[in-house]
Specification:
The structure holds two protein chains of two kinds. The C terminus of chain A is likely disordered. Chain A is built from 16 helices and 16 strands. Chain A has two domains: 170 residues, 3-Layer(aba) Sandwich (Rossmann fold); 175 residues, 3-Layer(aba) Sandwich (Rossmann fold), CATH 3.40.50.2000. Chain A has a six-stranded parallel beta sheet with strand order 12-11-10-13-14-15, with helices on both faces. In chain A, strand 13, helix 11 and strand 14 form a beta-alpha-beta unit. By secondary structure, chain B is mostly helical. Chain B has one domain: Up-down Bundle (de novo design (two linked rop proteins)). Chain B is built from seven helices and no strands. In chain B, helix 2 packs antiparallel against helix 3. Chain B starts with a helix and ends with a helix. The mean pLDDT of chain B is 84. At the A-B interface, helix 15 of A face helix 1 and helix 5 of B.
């Protein structure tokens, strides 16, 4: 069960896609119901849950689906799916998730991705959310932040199962390009200040002065002419903007780097991109945000520098580029670290959760209780049975 | 005229209270059902764990002293499955401690895997121990949610919970053997 439109890129959608594909590779049957703009773009395991409508939610505009038609689709999906377990993502979003919780009974697992302020939950309708949540047998949180949301605001507990990385997609990636000199990379929206590109650009001027053949590879959306307007020409010559890349090209680009730099100044709750770089075999240099320090195991699996400090970043990059042994050490530590976040491992943890809620239950059924229409339907079915 | 208004207001009030009570009763019913199933799930995993512990004790991969202690605590845990929740918690905690001592680190786990005729036994045990832990968490969470509703004044006064006993959490040490879960 996916709450957001499938064909709009997003962390939750990517999580669900990777989860579904990993479970299918492991030999399980998976069906995903999701809002979608263009039903033809869906992979074979996904089902159209209706057209999404833009709704302001949790500080941004989410594209959600609800209504009579969506309810009918979710109910039919549950009735005909004969599922052993129903996994709802983002159960607090007023979307298909709540509908699915109302429509089903049996083992329901839910994953909370974002952290939400209590007031928002109250606006969404605390009582309604509560009736849906009470049906959930097991709550999963993808990060410590998300877990705190559950503990603080809903008074329940959640199992922490981190976001996964398709490590197999990254570790086999062939380098995209053989750069002339040492290459460092940046990944993310160029014009989003919290991604910290200005800090890296400031540091790169110094890096070019000390390592003249260094290249800076920029991956991600944004207008390079705009972002690089203030960069002097001799520094600009070492910068290669690649624009937005496909998942596969991104892996290849990461594999071609001598160092991946994450100069983010905030707003990261997890840092999945660091894991992707580690999986692709790129040494990681990151600002010492809590989330990054946690992923990098306090600096053992990647170099950390103080948030926003361009001079420190410059020194860290130059030191690392001049020390192949240190790079090899970070790559080795990184690839060990990343196995804990490999989807194959994460999916195993999920299977354990599924197994502990399905033991002794007979699968997911449509829930007709509490529904006037449902009661009538059941009564009619009962009468027909009696005839 | 005034009387009519009163009648209508009373009728609406009674209807609303009735609706609220019916919804709360439905909620309680759902929560009790969830507790039943979560307890059943925990019971399944615990029985599976003690059965695996007995198999392993009998398989000859442990030294004789460990095997005897393991078999003994697994037997006690199985015998306690019919007893009350406190006695069972103690017996199961005992089995947990024996398992933790038997497989304290990765090195020991690797040696056992080599000695075992069927190494998947250890993977089974790891899975089951993790599932015991998860099931207990989910069960206690269900109990907590149910207690919250049952503590409401109206629910207590009107005995909406009927004769269903006050839900109890399951308290036990459920640490999985460190040798199996370390990564």
């Amino acid at each position: 069960m996916c709450p957001y439109a499938w064909d709009v890129p997003g962390g939750v959608q990517a999580h669900i896609r990777d989860q579904a594909e990993t479970l299918i590779e492991m030999g399980h049957d998976v069906s995903v119901i999701t809002p979608v703009e263009d039903p033809d773009a869906l992979p074979p395991y996904a089902i159209d849950g209706g057209r999404p409508r833009p709704v302001p939610y949790n500080g941004s505009v989410a594209r959600l689906t609800f209504g009579v038609k969506a309810t009918a689709r979710v109910r039919r999906w549950i009735r005909e799916g004969d599922f052993d377990v129903l996994h709802v993502h983002e159960p607090l979003a007023p979307s298909l998730g709540v509908l699915a919780c109302w429509a089903a009974r049996g083992p329901i697992v839910a994953t909370v991705h974002s952290s939400i302020e209590r007031s928002r939950v109250l606006i969404t309708g605390y009582y309604l959310a509560q009736t849906a949540l009470e049906k959930i047998s097991a709550l999963v949180a993808v990060s410590e932040h998300a877990r705190r949301t559950i503990v603080d605001h809903l008074g329940g507990d959640a199992v922490l199962i981190p976001n996964g990385v398709r490590v197999d997609h990254y570790e086999d990636a062939q380098p995209l390009h053989a750069w002339a000199g040492p290459a460092i990379g940046f990944l993310g929206r160029m014009d989003e200040p919290r991604k910290g590109l200005p800090i890296l650009l400031a540091a790169f001027a110094g890096i070019r002065a000390r390592v003249p053949d260094a290249t800076l590879v920029l991956i991600g959306p944004g207008d390079p002419d705009d972002v690089l307007a203030d960069v002097p020409d001799d520094v600009r010559a070492g910068i290669v903007p690649l624009g937005r890349l496909s998942e596969r090209e991104k892996a290849q680009a990461l594999a071609s780097l001598d160092a991946y730099v994450a100069p983010n100044t905030g707003g990261e709750s997890f840092g999945i991109i660091l894991l992707e770089a580690m999986a692709a075999g790129a040494p990681v240099i990151a600002s010492d945000l809590d989330a990054f320090a946690r992923v990098l195991d306090g600096g053992r699996c990647g170099a950390l520098f103080p948030v926003g400090d361009a001079a420190a970043l410059e020194d860290t990059v130059v030191d690392l580029l001049g020390d192949p042994a240190a790079r090899a050490r970070l790559v080795a530590a990184g690839s060990r670290r990343v196995t804990a976040y490999d989807w194959r491992t994460v999916a195993g943890d999920l299977i354990d959760v599924y197994a502990s809620v399905t033991a002794g239950q007979s699968g997911v059924r449509e829930d007709l209780r509490g529904q006037i229409v449902g009661r009538l339907a059941r009564r009619r079915a009962g009468n027909e049975g009696a005839d | 005229m005034g009387m009519w208004w009163w009648a209508i207001a009373t009728f609406v009030l009674v209807l609303l209270v009735g609706l609220y009570l019916s919804m709360t009763a439905g909620r309680l019913d759902r929560l009790h059902r969830r507790i039943d199933t979560s307890l059943h799930a925990l019971d399944t995993q615990l029985l599976r764990r003690s059965a695996l512990a007995l198999d392993m004790a009998a398989s000859g991969i442990f030294d004789p002293a460990t095997a005897v202690v393991l078999a003994d605590s697994a037997h006690s845990a199985r015998a306690a499955s019919e007893e009350d929740v406190v006695a069972r918690g103690l017996a199961e905690s005992d089995l947990t401690r024996v398992l933790v001592e038997a497989i304290p680190d990765v090195q020991e786990a690797d040696e056992l895997r080599e000695a075992a005729a069927d190494p998947s036994m250890l993977e089974d045990l790891r899975g089951t121990c993790v599932r015991v832990q998860l099931s207990r968490r989910f069960h206690n969470d269900a109990v907590r949610a149910c207690r919250q509703v049952r503590r409401q004044r109206l629910v207590r006064w009107l005995r909406l919970a009927g004769h269903t006993p006050w839900p109890e959490t399951v308290e036990m040490d459920d640490t999985p053997p460190p040798g199996l879960t370390a990564r």
